[in-house]
Amino acid sequence: xxxPNINILPDLKGISHAAAAEFLKIGNAAIEENDRFxxxxxxxSTPRKLYEYLASDKYNSDIDWEKVFFFFGDERDVSPAxxxxxxxxxxxxxxxxxxxxxxxxxxxxxxxxxxxxxADQYEKTIRKFFGLKxxxxxRFDLTLLGMGEDGHTASLFPRTGALNETAKITAANLVKQIxxxxxxxxxxxxxxxxxxxxxxxxxxxxxxxxxxxxxDFDAEKFPVQCIKPENGKLTWLVDEAxxxxxx
Length: 247
Fold this sequence. Notes:
alpha/beta; 3-stranded antiparallel sheet; 9 strands
């Protein structure tokens, strides 16, 4: 897999500032064109700093937050009040500090305690918001993604069933490695936005990143290699620690 748009920054702070600038640039352009900005957020540790920056005095007045609509790319099958919840992290570091209206936030309804049911409900929510017909996939203005040390992205883990899902927008993905379901959008949806920012930070991901970007394509082993938007822009934001083995 070869990426034409890899940006190497000094550290996580550099990634986060660059991502914040792109977030605001893309968001304001979307609002100017369509009077709204739709974004699918990522979970995990890397985007947390981005959310903190967006809510900070440096950036928080640079976009009309009432016109920003937040979705989630994936979620853990836990209570929304759990410290493991992607929603809770975004709520603490982004939504609450900015005073985002609840009507602008669309989360996985994990309190249902039924992973397939949660996935089906979220697909219905997305279809209703975007006014989709059967067989259509949503086109977000921006999708934020990360990469795990094993090469997964969103909650599409190596050698799991959802990697091959092509008809649905969402899936309850059984991840045997962690003995748990994960809730995730599928690749047809992930690859359909206008813009993707893929954030990778830390030396623990360096060897995997080199294999992902420089080895042959192996989607079952490195699902993140499947991030190939057909009609959108993919930008990698990588820190020096993660990029240390790249040629």
